[in-house]
Amino acid sequence: MENNSGRQYPQLPQVAVGAIVIKDNRVLLVKRGKAPSNGQWAIPGGRVELGETLQEAAERELLEETNIEISAGEPAYCFDVIVRDDKDQVQYHYVIIDLKADYVSGEVQRGDDAVEAAWIAPEEIGSLPVNQTTRHVLRGVVGFVI
Q1: Is 74 in contact with 97 (CB distance < 8 Å)?
Q2: I want to staple 57 with a disulfide (CB 3.0 to 4.6 A). Which of 22, 52, 53, 77 is the partner?
Q3: Mind listing the pLDDT tens digit for each residue in 32-76?
Q4: What 3-state class would DSSP assign to 61?
Q5: What pLDDT digit, counting tens, does each position of 83-109 carry?
Q6: What range defines the domain where residue 49 resides?
Q7: What does residue 54 show for φ and ψ, rounded to 5 degrees?
Q8: Which residues belong to the active site?
Q9: How far apart are CA 103 and CA 70, in angstroms?
Q10: What are the backbone dihedrals phi and psi of residue 106, each rounded to the nearest 5 degrees, phi first?
Q11: How many domains would you assign to the chain?
Q12: How far apart are CA 1 and CA 64, in angstroms?
């Protein structure tokens, strides 16, 4: 039942990171191209690889997903994503740690799992399919008025 990447129907929860990057009062978001958040705009990031720190994983994932180089800081928010299939089997289980990060360099280009990547102003977020956790983080942690 498990696929080759271990993302679907995992034996254990998967650890992932996101990076909250603000530049010119805009947040860097990606439109996901894969389940479990396919089609939704979210904070960019991905799975932590064996031997990586949270910061190293966030910096690598951001570069792969958006072409943006960052300097990742401390954790700002942590949450679970648990998705069950129609037979109540755990199809996805991620423990996600969002880190605050500083923009270093680069022009946004989508890559990796992202269908789109962009700097989004707070007033634009209301018109996009942004998942509820991302909205919560942007309001509560970043202080965006959306």
Answers
A1: no
A2: 52
A3: 988 888 899 999 999 999 999 999 999 999 999 999 999 999 999
A4: helix
A5: 999 999 999 999 999 999 999 999 999
A6: 14-142
A7: -60, -40
A8: 116
A9: 5
A10: 110, 155
A11: 1
A12: 28
